[in-house]
Write a structure and sequence with these properties.
Blueprint (H helix, E strand, L loop, with lengths): L4 H4 L5 E3 L10 E6 L5 E5 L4 E5 L9 E6 L7 E5 L2 E5 L4 E5 L9 E6 L11 E3 L8 E5 L15 E4 L5 E5 L7 E4 L5 E5 L8 E5 L34 H7 L8 E3 L8 E6 L13 E5 L4 E10 L2 E10 L6 E6 L5 E6 L13 E6 L9 E7 L2 E6 L5 H5 L5 E7 L9 E5 L3 E6 L5 E6 L6 E6 L15 E6 L6
Antiparallel strand pairs: 1-24, 2-3, 3-4, 4-5, 6-7, 7-8, 8-9, 10-11, 11-12, 12-13, 14-15, 15-16, 16-17, 18-19, 19-20, 20-21, 21-32, 22-23, 23-24, 25-26, 26-30, 27-28, 27-31, 29-30, 31-32
């Protein structure tokens, strides 16, 4: 899609993990066990334990640990057991007699409705209190016919289900950022102009009103006094509907994601290159992996997304960092008429960093009157200080009950000045205006590194929900 796969491979090669014939792996959720094995939950409801997947070259050995579940898209290990999140429940799976095969399955919670094939459920890793956060997709992707569909809930270690917030449509993954705040990935569709990363704010309303009907079953969560108006803008409606939480990071459709899936925080301490404490996200339709960064401004989360690695073999459902600092990526294709760029029916792959640092946009952070752009390596001071090196446009989406949205209300801010830091690793960009409720679309094609190289990816997209007050 970005046309950079060949260049990306010079820094982040993709390694295939062979899957023996006869094992219908179809990866959905992944987890690293204390003994170093990779646990893979599958669309068919099995859990395989894989030894040797992190070796170079990989020498995987597969062992069937558990079966009988239904579309496992999330796995987490805690206190000697795996916890799997599937369509209808959160299940603790344990091997009691130590023979390598699960023999106890305990339903922690099934306190939500489930009846049809769009009612997906995606779970988090255990949070510090041992809770699993679950994002529940709508019925038929448009409506909420079954209990708590379109809500995020959390399941406690003792099996209590606690409603958290409403307004989801079709989430594809749940996880925390570097500050431990929980987010879910949302798909483009009704009331969602594009895919986005949404803050699971307790008591919040995340944008899709179909799930309003379950507030009577969650008396501890105040129901918004108003519903959003269709054919409006998020910036207008968040002032009308006090509980409305704007998306933290929007992913412009096709330019970045199309069907974003599972994501993980990079805590590899530099073993995966210069992107520590950033989120890495898969995309099902486009068979690629992206990056995202988040920051809180005036109490509201927002941030940016960046291209990372395309050319994966199938639709990516989830990613997982290994103890060696590699990034596992797994997924499949289906017969449900969802387009997938990668041609394989299923695949388990690994993205390695070979130790060579690409010249990249490392992160973009907002300022009161512009942005600070950080690079992975020093930029050439001449190109970094030239205002013509920065092409920035902005746009937003129609907030409406229709499916998706075109990019609307475009503006072209003028770059007034660009001041590189003494070490060349960052540039402060001053604009004539920063536009609230707009994606700021950065094209830094004109920037060069200190040794004359182009950026590996010259594009980035920052979602402005709030402008700093100082």
């Amino acid at each position: 899609m970005w046309g950079t796969a060949a260049e990306e491979s010079k820094y982040y090669p993709i390694v295939d993990i062979p899957v023996p014939a006869g094992i219908p792996l179809h990866p959905g959720g992944m987890e690293i066990l204390p003994d170093g094995r990779l646990a893979v939950g599958t669309r068919r409801g099995d859990v395989y334990l894989v030894r040797g997947a992190f070796d170079s070259p990989p020498r995987p050995e597969y062992h069937l640990f558990a079966s009988g579940q239904d579309e496992i898209f999330s796995l987490s290990w805690r206190d000697g057991a795996l916890t799997a999140t599937s369509w209808a429940e959160v299940t603790r799976i344990k091997d009691l007699d130590g023979d390598g095969v699960a023999d106890r399955y305990d339903t922690l919670s099934a306190d939500w409705g489930y009846a049809e094939g769009h009612e997906f459920a995606f779970g988090s890793k255990h949070d510090p209190d041992g809770n699993i956060w679950v994002a529940l997709g709508l019925s038929s992707s448009y409506e909420s016919h079954n209990l708590f569909r379109g809500w995020a809930v959390k399941v406690t270690p003792d099996g209590r289900m606690i409603p958290v917030c409403s307004g989801l449509r079709s989430p594809g993954g749940v996880g925390s950022n570097a500050e431990g705040v929980m987010f879910a990935i949302e798909s483009q569709g009704p009331w969602n102009g594009c895919c986005s990363l949404k803050h699971l704010k307790p008591g919040g309303f995340l944008g899709h009103p179909a799930s309003y009907n379950w507030y009577p079953f969650a008396p501890e969560v105040p129901k918004p006094a108003l519903e959003p108006k269709s054919d409006s803008r998020m910036g207008i409606e968040k002032r009308r509907v006090r509980e409305l939480v704007p998306p933290a990071v929007k992913f412009p459709y096709i330019k970045m994601g199309r069907s974003i899936s599972g994501f993980r925080l990079n805590t590899t301490d530099g073993r995966f290159g210069p992107f520590d404490n950033q989120l890495f996200l898969g995309d099902y339709s486009l068979s690629l992996v992206m990056r995202a960064t988040t920051e809180q401004v005036n109490g509201v989360w927002q941030g940016a997304c960046y291209p990372f690695r395309e050319g994966l073999a199938t639709g990516i459902m989830n990613v997982e960092f290994t103890p060696k600092g590699q990034l596992m990526a797994g997924g499949f294709t289906t017969s449900r008429q969802w387009p997938v760029r990668g041609a394989r029916p299923f695949a388990l792959q690994r993205i390695d960093w070979n130790g060579i640092t690409p010249f990249e946009i490392q992160e973009i952070r907002i300022l009161r009157d512009g942005f600070r752009v950080l690079f992975t390596q020093p930029a050439d001071p001449g190109t970094a200080a030239a205002v013509e090196s920065y092409r920035i446009t902005t746009y937003t989406h129609v907030y409406h009950e229709g499916y998706g949205s075109p990019e609307v209300d475009p503006t072209t801010p003028r770059v007034l000045k660009a001041i590189p830091s003494p070490d060349g690793r960052s540039v402060r960009i001053t604009l004539d205006r920063v536009v609230e409720d707009h994606i700021h679309d950065f094209d830094l094609t004109g920037i060069r590194s200190h040794d004359g190289r182009r950026l590996l990816h010259a594009k980035a997209y920052y979602t402005v929900n709030e402008i700093p007050k100082d």
